[in-house]
Task: inverse folding
């Protein structure tokens, strides 16, 4: 079937014949035709999903270009054109690219983004996808305002000095309501929390002031 001929790179021959009935002699010509199969850009699958925390509004702004290193891989980015699309068909047809992929607003918990990576010379392209996930803020129970422990010798002072060892992890189950998917970390100061510098061993925390 000439309109659907499966082939790798090869040479075929084309014969053109004059079929005019007024011509007494059958005339024809034969030419070579090179069939060249160009490779499509290789994208390492699966592409990683991008996840942001819900800020309380149920929406988030994603930077889709964070996945560019995974999409491009070891290819020379100057030789390819990368675009992002909201549907598989848009990516295949190379239409309606996302205009500002570095500030893409998402308003649903999970959505799919499609990417098109096209060879600038051959115009062969690969299409792939990844997920954008808005992770919900975990719900938890506030711990009690006070945690008490007996004043024992810590090695850093004397008895009855108001310095002792606290096991902060006894609060974990109450804070998480037994949800094993939640992890509790403890911080000495707000600055430590902002810098994500948690108490190293919350099961043996020694207070610094009475």
Result:
């Amino acid at each position: 079937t000439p309109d659907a001929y499966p082939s790798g790179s090869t040479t075929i021959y084309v014969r053109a014949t004059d079929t005019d009935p007024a011509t007494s002699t059958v005339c024809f010509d034969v030419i070579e035709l090179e069939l060249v199969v160009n490779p499509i850009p290789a994208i390492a699958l699966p592409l990683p999903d991008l996840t942001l925390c819900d800020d309380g509004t149920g929406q988030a702004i994603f930077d889709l270009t964070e996945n560019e290193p995974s999409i491009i891989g070891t290819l020379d980015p100057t030789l390819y054109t990368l675009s992002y699309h909201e549907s598989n068909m848009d990516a295949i047809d190379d239409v309606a690219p996302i205009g500002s992929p570095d500030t893409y607003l998402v308003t649903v918990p999970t959505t799919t983004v499609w990417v098109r990576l096209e060879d600038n010379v051959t115009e062969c392209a690969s299409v792939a996808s990844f997920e954008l996930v808005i992770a919900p803020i975990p719900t938890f129970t506030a711990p009690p305002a006070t945690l008490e422990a007996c004043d024992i010798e810590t090695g850093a002072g004397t008895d009855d000095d108001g310095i002792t060892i606290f096991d902060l992890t006894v609060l974990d189950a109450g804070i998480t309501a037994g949800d094993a998917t939640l992890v509790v970390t403890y911080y000495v100061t707000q600055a430590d929390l902002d810098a994500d510098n948690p108490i190293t061993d919350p099961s043996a925390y020694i207070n610094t002031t009475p």
About this structure: Residues 69 and 77 are 9 Å apart (CA to CA). The first strand starts at residue 10 and ends at 17. The chain has a mean pLDDT of 88. Strands lie at 10-17, 28-35, 50-53, 60-62, 80-85, 104-106, 110-119, 125-135, 165-166, 205-206.
